[in-house]
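Q: Hi! New to this. If I give you a protein sequence and the SMILES for S-adenosylmethionine, can you show me the bound structure?
A: Yes, paste them in.
Q: Okay, here:
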Amino acid sequence: MNALPEWVASAEHTAHAYDLIADRYADVWFTNPDSDLADAFLAHLPERSRLLDVGCGPGQYTRHFWSRGHTAVGIDISQRTAAGARARCGRSMFARMTMMALGFPDAAFDGVWACASVPHIPSGSVGSALAELHRVLAPGGTLFVNVPLGLGARVETPADFAQEGTYGRFFQRYSDAEDFLAVLRSTGFDVVDSGENVVRSDVLAHRGTISAKWFNVTAVKS
Ligand SMILES: C[S@@+](CC[C@H](N)C(=O)[O-])C[C@H]1O[C@@H](n2cnc3c(N)ncnc32)[C@H](O)[C@@H]1O
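A: Thanks. Here is the predicted structure of the protein with S-adenosylmethionine bound:
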């Protein structure tokens, strides 16, 4: 991490970094969900599924899932982000919560959608995060998760999306997608689909230089 202080990888810092950019992030992303990606995930699920949107941001995917007839709740570690999702979506189905300790019973969901949120967990803790997502999935339930590809961890600067004068968001990148798949498998998931996704240039323009390549995985709780 190039001499960055260790605390920039902490959940507290991530929550604070998102509190600072919550409105700016929502301005870019709330009306811009990747519907194709979300619908490809939904294709693995029955109608009227119970879905959890992990690290839901402004709630654009939770809202998309409602529009497709599913029941969905969103959780996010940033208080300001969760409150913004409630306000923007006009519904209260969003809570401040960490994915490391989800306040839901075992097997509560048919599907878990974790879009661009797991990269905020350092690689040493990612197994615990995936185990928690596994716990709340029903047997046979489907997980979508993605992580950026690249060399090691990175912290955003204001040249990316961070607020001026602050350390930005911590991102765990993976140099080898197989390493990430190995953690998923050891957590009890069967990988049913995976592939690299080169981020669209209009999206990159907002996302800075963290990574142009993401690794998308669909997996089933075995
Ligand atoms: C890059 S944003 C993605 C938001 C949305 N899923 C999307 O695709 O636009 C990552 C989100 O994950 C949330 N997040 C980061 N760490 C988290 C954690 N430990 N538990 C829950 N949410 C977390 C952040 O607050 C942020 O809203």
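A: The helical segments are 11-29, 35-42, 60-67, 79-89, 126-136, 177-186, 201-207. Let me know if you'd like me to explain how to read the tokens.
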